[in-house]
Structures are given as structure tokens and as C-alpha cells.
């Protein structure tokens, strides 16, 4: 029984599909409806958190380091998920929360790292809140 409970609480081994347009973003609460900008985080406790914008996942992970687990970003232009370690970010228009990030393979020309993308999102959030330096 203990092993069954542990298995049931372990995170999935790969990305899973949300219930599109019915699952709320774990950061902003908007419904996750556009695959091109979706992301997901699997916590060590086995919970799968979905995000409507790559920037939402980046901010959430920075604000909740204890929930760090495996993450996937939906490819900006292709119908597939990219593991966090293989993801890069390009400028993209029309993202749900206007963070302006589209996930692509890290080796794609012009792709920025997760660290650089997070810094951009944090600067944007600071300017939105009027706390930019």
C-alpha cells in the first residue's frame, strides 16, 4: 500500500496535456487555452502545475524554489513539448500575459537562455508594479 501511494504521488515521467481552456494557470489564474504558449511544472510531490504563458512558469519557479521539479514548455511553432533543459526563448507577440516569450529548441538561432528570459520577465513585472530600478 505504501509503495502504491508513493507511486501515485510521483510526478509523471514526461509532459501531460492539460484540459485545454478549463485548467487555470498556477501563477495568474487565467485558463490555459493556447498550446503555443503553455508550460507545465511537475513538483517533487507529484503535482502537475500548468501555466498559460512561459513567463508565468518562470516567475512561479523563481518564487517557489521548493517546488522545483521537471518543467516543460510547449514549442512556440510546433505541436510538441520541450524539456526545460532543452528550451530556449525567442521574442513572441500575443502571449497570454504579454511576457513576449516563445519556447523553441535552445540551439535555434537567437534563442535566449532561461536565465535571460527570467530576467526580462522580472524586469517587466517590476515596471508593471512601478518598482523598476
Rg (C-alpha, Å): 15 Å
Largest sheet: 4 strands, antiparallel
Strand order of the largest sheet: 2-1-3-4
Order of helices and strands: HEEHEEEEH
- Approximate shape: globular
Count of individual helical segments = 3
Uncertain spans: 3-7
- Secondary-structure-based class equals alpha+beta
Walk me through the structure.
This protein is α+β, with helices and mostly antiparallel strands. It is 26% helix and 20% strand. The chain contains three helices and six strands; from the N terminus they run αββαββββα. It has helices spanning 2-9, 54-63, 114-129, and strands at residues 39-42, 48-51, 70-74, 81-83, 87-91, 101-105. The strands form two sheets. A four-stranded antiparallel beta sheet has the order 2-1-3-4. A hairpin with a 5-residue loop joins strand 1 and strand 2. It is globular, with a radius of gyration of 15 Å. The N and C termini lie far apart (54 Å).
Structure characteristics:
single chain, 133 residues, alpha+beta, four-stranded antiparallel β-sheet, globular, disordered N terminus
What is this structure's SSE topology?
Elements: H1 2-9, E1 39-42, E2 48-51, H2 54-63, E3 70-74, E4 81-83, E5 87-91, E6 101-105, H3 114-129
Antiparallel strand pairs: 1-2, 1-3, 3-4, 5-6
Helix pairs in contact: 2-3
Amino acid at each position: 500500500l505504501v509503495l502504491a501511494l508513493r507511486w501515485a504521488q510521483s510526478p509523471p515521467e514526461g509532459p501531460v496535456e492539460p484540459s485545454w481552456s478549463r485548467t487555470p494557470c498556477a501563477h495568474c489564474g487565467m485558463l490555459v487555452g493556447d498550446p503555443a504558449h503553455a508550460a507545465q511544472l511537475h513538483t517533487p510531490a507529484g503535482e502537475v502545475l500548468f501555466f498559460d504563458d512561459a513567463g508565468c512558469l518562470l516567475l512561479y519557479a523563481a518564487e517557489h524554489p521548493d517546488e522545483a521539479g521537471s518543467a516543460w514548455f510547449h514549442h512556440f511553432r510546433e505541436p510538441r513539448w520541450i524539456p526545460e533543459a532543452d528550451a530556449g526563448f525567442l521574442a513572441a507577440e500575443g502571449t497570454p500575459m504579454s511576457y513576449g516569450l516563445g519556447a523553441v529548441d535552445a540551439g535555434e538561432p537567437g534563442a535566449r537562455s532561461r536565465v535571460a528570459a527570467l530576467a526580462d520577465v522580472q524586469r517587466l513585472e517590476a515596471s508593471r508594479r512601478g518598482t523598476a530600478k
